[in-house]
Amino acid sequence: MDKDIQDSIKAGERNRAAVELVRNWCAHAKIEKYGGVGMIEEATGLPIGLHGLKCDHANAGGTFTWDLHEAALDFYDRNCVDCKNRKPVGIPNLLSLVKEREERRAQEAKDAAEAEARRVEVQNARRLVRSQLRADLGSLSNTIVDNIDEYDDHRDDEHRERLCESARLAPEHFSQPIIEYIFALAEQEPWFVEAGLTVLDYLNADPARIAKIALSSIARAKPTAETARVILSRLSIADANLVTEALPNVIERASPYDHYGFGRALPSPEPGLLLGAWKTHQAAVREGLDRLLSSRQTYSAELAARGLMVLQQDDPNAMHGFLRTMVSKFSRAELLLDDFDERHGAFRHLRDALAMAFAAFPDEIDTLVQEFIAHSDRNTKDRAYKIYEAPLRGHRHDEPPISPESRVHRLCFKRLLWATTTEESEKILECAREVFRGRPYEMTDIARVELDGLLGAILLLDDRLRRHDETAVPKDENLLGAMQRDHRRSTITSLITSLIEWASVAAKGDPVLVKKVVGSFDQIPDGRDHLKGMMLTCIEHVGQTVEGLNLVLPHLYSGLVGNSVAVRAYAAAALGKAPQENVPPLVYEAFSVLLSDQYVAVHKAAVRALGYFQLPESVQNRAAQALLNLIHHYSQKTGKDDFLIDCVERLAYELRRVDDTTGGVAKYLVQVMLGIEPLYLRSSLRSMGRIFGETEGFVDLLIKLIPESDDRDHRSDELHLLAELPNEAILSRKAALEKLGVDIGLNRPWIALHIVEVLGRAGALAEAHKIAEAYVTRPDATVHNQWQRIRMKSVEIATAFEQAIAEGRRGDLQALADRWEENAQQDKEFQADVEKRNSRSRFSHPL
Description:
The chain is mainly alpha-helical. Among the domains are: 3-92, no CATH class; 614-708; 737-847, no CATH class. The protein has 44 helices and two strands. Helix 9 (207-220) runs antiparallel to helix 10 and helix 34 packs parallel to helix 37 (698-705). The protein starts with a helix and ends in a 9-residue tail after the last helix.
């Protein structure tokens, strides 16, 4: 079982135990979940994800945590400590968690006190040694010992600098006993290493001993800049064994792991120490790299990869002796690493190191990868192919073009291209699809010289697709099997589409290559309608020149008017992507007919293609009538709302073009939208609002959609559009808006406030006041919603104030002003209580 799934199940089981403790603690306590239900949670029934507590008697909030124990303890600290409304249910309950926490805190305090006592005892022992040292020293030398005492007491930069400066400015006062003491202290105390090494460096003390202290320190922790400076000039006399032991932290300095950059600046790479060790102790560094690469921990192997990349940039042969180990480690990670799982599967640094090695030693890496592909299990083979992916990853439009002379790119391109036609593994096909996804960008020149291979692979992939479709579906196939079969077909289809685009981009601008791409239409066997249709998409790129467009237009026109349903659908979609400047009207005439095509696939493709261009005036009326017919037809059907809104949107843009957004057709489209599921309206609502904002009935559409709005972040197209409607539209539906505000306000008061604001702006003050009043006087008034009631009461008083002024009731204003002051005082007292409760939380911010 995947480790992530195991961890999720363990978390759910732990949360289930916490739920029982919460329920036994108090009958009022409720468990709330933040976010949706995942597949693992649905399958197991375990409470997995972010959970928190809620109680009607709690006025301070809480937090939602992955581990419910943390949220429960936090809620207890804020709200339960002094609660007078608790209704105990049973045991064990939250008190068992509280007891465990207090015992743990007590133990931590005890351990801290004992550690402090030991620290003081050891420090006093050091002071005693220094006091004995003073007996034989002069006054100036004693000052140096005093500086060491002060640094021992404060451990700060000021006192460290004072000690180091004394060595730099007055080295003659550092007698041999003091030097020996500094050596001993630096060897024994990690906190003194940096200061000790600096002093000893200024004094030109025993270089071998300095190197030993520095490397021993680096073996324990990442080196500081000062430690690296001191050892760098003494590497040649350093112990090779210590260089090997210190290598992991030397690499960390040379190539910091960017995980440390989360939330703070990433340390700058400082490769000098690693490069110096490579020059002076290459055998020791190799031994250290071998140890790291041979480790069964992902971190160590990745660390070796980071080090190798630094070295390779300085020494073009640095990686040569590690090629087999690198390929083996990456390919056989599942067998060679104890902590390998999907989270570590990317092997990012080793993958990048292999890409660098591939560039330096293409034929040797290829030979090794092919060896693992030919003689390994399926998982190893899958991962080995990802080595071919590494040099081709992340092609971008802003990168300089890669020369077709690049051996590594040509080699990897060919290996992955032909893997799509021969390999059966889903992961290998996914690997290739990831490389060929999108446009070739800086790989365009490579694709150009490999154009024949691309076109041949397209034909072979279509053969593979045909075999897949002709394979009988197993009678006992379950849902998972059907999903896997559909996914495989989607992968093959996606690869064909990508390779067609790569071939088209590569050929663009070269008449000879354009003819070759367009000529491939004639090589497609009869009956391969899907491939013929997919090939038409090449018009997007090869059609950017008049010559290329003229070559492909006959095939496009033939597809638009042909007998094949699939080809007609593909041809309609292809026209949507084609450069429109030189397309003759006859093509658009043929296209407009497809809007009335009896086959669903065809007219759907035509409607969606219509979103990418504007038809000539000669066919606009025909197209508009076809759209209206489609809308009328699909509005009578169920389950077709996704396409229906596409049709409405296309016709809406046509109405805006002719400036007829308030007439009968516009009103009809608004009524149609009232029958569409909100899910399908949301993505196009903003654009529809700009067109139909003043159309009669559009406010009704918003009233329908607002309860379904996705307002988690308090951002909603529905509410923005409501605020933009003219006052007349608001006033015409003020009663409906009042009812909506009252109904929705109990659970989502922030939406009610939007409605109050809109009604108030339009002058419907009575309705706005009733919405606020309904929340203030809600029947389920509890401590939990007290803050929201206080805030809504301020809105209720404000609307009553505006209403009194509008109606000339001046005598009511003083009473309303007194209510405002009283409510403000309640708010102040409530916030003070919440702040006091939040101060008991272990979290650093109030919730």
